Amino acid sequence: MLIGNALAATENVADVAGTSVAANIIQILLIFLVFYLLLIRPQQKKMKQHEAELTAIKTGDQVITGGGLYATVKECRDDELTLELSEGLTVKANRWTIREVLKAKENSAPVQKNKKKKK
Prior knowledge:
Helix content is 45%, strand content 27%. A hairpin with a 4-residue loop joins strand 1 (61-65) and strand 2 (70-76). The protein has one helix at 2-55; strands at residues 61-65, 70-76, 80-86, 89-94, 98-104. By secondary structure, the chain is an alpha+beta fold. It folds into 2 domains: 1-55; 58-104, Roll (SH3 type barrels), CATH 2.30.30. The chain is rod-shaped, with a radius of gyration of 31 Å.
């Protein structure tokens, strides 16, 4: 009689343990899914967008380098850019060291407004 009770108890434990393992696996998969949707996927989209911006750099674009320098692109070759930091000061940089592409420099001359003269 004692052996029968012991066998019955081990079968119940095995059933409970089997369902808890399956539940744990499902929980781990759900956690991974949440991490993927909230962290990994948006980061991959951001990396693809940044890579597209870097490959689209052209002469005249204003950029910020990885070191935080603002520059204007004067010449583009495969992975090498010639950047003008200020008038007459140019440096060469690798395309992949650019942190951000601001926009093309449309008109560098300041806009003058018509001022009315007093008579």
